[in-house]
Amino acid sequence: MMTTVFAQLSDGFVVCPAMSIGQPRSHSPALTATAIERLLAKRIHDGLYVEGARLPTVREMAEALGVNKNTIVRAYQALERKGYLELTRGRGAFVRQIEPRGGSLDSRWLERLDHLLDDAKSNGLSRELVLHEITRGMDRKYGPAGLRMAFAECNQPDIDEMGTQLRAAVGRPFEGVLLADVLAHSAEIAQRFDLLVTTFYHLSEVIAAVQPASREKVVGIQAMPGHDALLNIARLHGQVIGLVCDRSGTMDNLTHIIRTYHQSATIMPALIDDQSRLQTLLRKADAIVATRSCYEQLMNLQPSAPVVMVVFTI
């Protein structure tokens, strides 16, 4: 027979040892079914009632705690629903200390959380402070949640291509943002996002555009022409190789790459919007390298020289 019962103290409920189960308790108010449920659940969780142990009968527990039998019935039934007890008619209440399956939300875990929140409230901690500390703990264990991240590039095709690669590598979603929008609305963009990622080609532009306080949000990543593009560039033949881009920074980097493969060739760069320079390039180039953002517009001009399209990867 069980030889311990529970006493109610000013700061909660604790186990009081060495009290006879038959001893009436007239010194404290009657416990509610919810309070009894929580106290028994704690004992099961703490291992004081092992799996298979038989709890006192409804009548014995009611007499020991000085409550109505219906109160004990409700407490036992609640514990059965939550998986703590198995109630068998004619035999009694038996402990079912079933370990939770990995990844499942076990009622005993929720019980511990409930006790923790009660303790925080009784110590006068505000809701905001408790939530803040819980969030900080979650971020340490699970990583920051809801981190707002953007990937900025100068054209939509590269945003789509490299943004997909970046999302796969990091395992988190990125919102694509055009570089022109970042430069035009840098303060708004910096406020909207916790992290602003761009390629090394545009890193200096983005850093210069945002306010000093927001520059720590800007992160650069390496982006290079893909393997197929580099292979096709290396296979080009001709003394004059044209290069068509939509930004001067990209043009400088690709000029260096092309010169690595064709040291004796003349590199003739042109921005896609510079029609005069572009027409000269079309007349003189033996081969042309174009970024994907310019490729369709260039092909509409029906160049006679072979064209290699550059797709960047990270």
List the helices and strands and how they pair.
Blueprint: E1 5-9, E2 12-16, H1 33-45, H2 58-65, H3 69-81, E3 85-88, E4 92-95, H4 107-122, H5 127-142, E5 149-153, H6 156-170, E6 175-178, H7 179-184, H8 186-192, E7 195-199, H9 203-209, E8 218-221, E9 224-225, H10 227-234, E10 240-245, H11 248-261, E11 266-271, H12 275-284, E12 287-291, H13 292-299, E13 307-310, E14 312-313
Parallel strand pairs: 5-6, 5-7, 7-8, 10-11, 10-12, 12-13
Antiparallel strand pairs: 1-2, 3-4, 9-14
Helix pairs in contact: 1-3, 2-3
Task: Give the name of the CATH superfamily of the largest domain.
Answer: Winged helix-like DNA-binding domain superfamily/Winged helix DNA-binding domain
Give the strand order, joined by hyphens, for the main sheet.
Answer: 6-5-7-8
The CATH architecture of the largest domain can be named as Orthogonal Bundle
Poorly predicted runs are 1-26
Give the H and E element order. Answer: EEHHHEEHHEHEHHEHEEHEHEHEHEE
Task: Please bin the fraction of helical residues.
Answer: 40-55%
Based on CA atoms alone, the radius of gyration comes out at 35 Å
Strand share of the residues?
15-25%
At the third CATH level, what is the topology name of the largest domain?
Arc Repressor Mutant, subunit A
Q: If helices are DSSP runs of H or I spanning 4 or more residues, what is the number of helices?
A: 13
Mean pLDDT: 83
The biggest beta sheet reads: 4 strands, parallel
Please tell me what the overall shape is: elongated
CATH top level of the largest domain is Mainly Alpha
Spatial separation of the terminal alpha carbons:
70 Å
Q: How many discrete domains? A: 4
Number of strands: 14
Question: Which structural category fits the helices and strands?
Answer: alpha/beta
